[in-house]
Amino acid sequence: MITFIASHAIGSGTIIWVFISEIFPNSVRAKGQSLGSFTHWIFAAGLTLFFPIAISSFDAGFIFGFFAFMMVLQLIWCVFMMKETKGKTLETIAREMQI
């Protein structure tokens, strides 16, 4: 469990915070980041409340296997759907993301 938490914290767990800070245009960035952070923490709290119920109802290996599978789906989505933003200014990212 500690390995899972550590790998999530230094890997895909950080993606959401970078994504939230870069996805919104400058004109609404503060409100967008607030909404994104709020949504993230609500779902994190829900997961924390759901986990004890799930672990008492299902085998622990199944639960952690499910979470691992979901992380693989997240990785696939991030690799193929999210644009690389490393070394780019927020203005450049905004221009590239306009439809």
Q: What does this 3D model show about the protein?
A:
- With 99 residues, this protein is an all-alpha fold.
- Helix 2 (15-23) runs antiparallel to helix 3.
- The protein has a single domain, classed as MFS general substrate transporter like domains (Growth Hormone, Chain: A).
- The protein is elongated.
- Helices cover 78% and strands 0% of the residues.
- It has helices at residues 2-10, 15-23, 29-57, 60-81, 90-97.
Features:
99 residues, mainly alpha, Growth Hormone, Chain: A, 5 helices
Number of structural units classed as domains? 1
Instruction: List low-pLDDT spans.
Output: none
Shape: elongated
- Indicate the mean pLDDT: 85
Layout of helices and strands:
Elements: H1 2-10, H2 15-23, H3 29-57, H4 60-81, H5 90-97
What's a quick, concise take on this entry?
It contains 5 helices and no strands. By secondary structure, the chain is an all-alpha fold.
